[in-house]
């Protein structure tokens, strides 16, 4: 077994999605629409990285960092 743990610095490709839309998708639990934009999933499917590995299905919403000195998420 190999376990990758930590922040691999992959994100959601969502520059064209306003943060309000992302927030609504999360609240409606429409995670598949967001997972389709997951950079790690995209490179794995293309075979560009980690192509020999599989990832367990992700049943939880994306996580975000807070804006500096704030309680607001940095979407």
From TrEMBL:
This is Inositol polyphosphate-related phosphatase domain-containing protein. GO terms for cellular component: cytoplasm; plasma membrane; ruffle. Coiled coil: none annotated. GO terms for molecular function: phosphatidylinositol-4,5-bisphosphate 5-phosphatase activity. It holds the Pfam family Exo_endo_phos2. Transmembrane segments: none annotated. Residues 1-74 form the Inositol polyphosphate-related phosphatase domain. GO terms for biological process: phosphatidylinositol dephosphorylation.
């Amino acid at each position: 077994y190999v376990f990758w743990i930590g922040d691999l610095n992959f994100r959601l490709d969502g520059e064209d999605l306003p943060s309000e839309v992302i927030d609504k998708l999360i609240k409606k639990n429409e995670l598949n629409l967001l997972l389709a934009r997951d950079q790690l999933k995209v490179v794995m499917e293309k075979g560009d990285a980690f192509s020999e590995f599989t990832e367990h299905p992700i049943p939880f919403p994306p996580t975000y960092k807070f804006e500096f000195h704030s309680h607001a998420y940095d979407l």
